[in-house]
Amino acid sequence: QVQLVESGGGLVQAGGSLRLSCAASGSIFSIDAMGWYRQAPGKQRELVASITTGGSTHYTDAVKGRFTISGDPAKKTVYLQMNSLKPEDTTVYYCNARDRFPGYTRDYWGQGTQVTVSS
To answer: How far apart are CA 97 and CA 14, in angstroms?
Structure first.
């Protein structure tokens, strides 16, 4: 059974920093990438940042220059350094691991960690 365990969320003032961590356990046949998503109440879950096993990274425009994703998907670990946090970054953040090979894709999710940025 695959489990993703997140840590590092919390309360911080605007302009502050937080670092999220995620470690996956269990068997993932062909991990392709890991990433961080966030979901505000009443909105769709959106990709914040991702990193592939090859080291390629992707960021949503809203966090470029402020957030940095790192880690090693092949070792099932991913981190998100969040700097210059804004109140609009407040929401639940979810770790994701993608298992993919030709003809098959499966996403695994963590339980979510709350990030709250006060103004």
So the answer is: 29
